[in-house]
Amino acid sequence: MKFKIKRADRPKHTELVACVGWSRQSEQPGGELYSVGDDQAIWWWDINGEPVKKLMDIDTSVICMDWFPVAKGSQELLALGCADGSFKLLAKTGRVDKSVAEAHQSAIIAIKWSYEGAALATAGEDGQIKIWSRGGMLRS
Known about the structure:
There is one protein chain. The chain is 0% helix and 46% strand. By secondary structure, the protein is mainly beta. A hairpin with a 4-residue loop joins strand 6 (77-82) and strand 7. It has a single domain (17-133), classed as Methylamine Dehydrogenase, Chain H.
């Protein structure tokens, strides 16, 4: 096994990269990589580490992200946990499907889909863990 490091001539993010995640549903073998930085930009990368395009700019700093588990015929969603205590569900096209403004009293430090994708868990700096429906409604 060979580990290859590649350095871009001009970095795409202008600030620190906060998180990265692999999209599992892709026409490209190996998937697609998405990154979110402190510059509040979301970039889409190919398997070779080349930027495909800037997906979008987001209005707040993102701390964590998780891709919706892929099932045949399902729409893939990206869950973003934000520093202001909100979370957002984004479609692969960059469209915001749902935004929950006051999910926690402070930053969301972890966000994770359940294995079947029926629920979303968030953990905040406020010491709370919350379970949400796929549509962004609070369950517990």
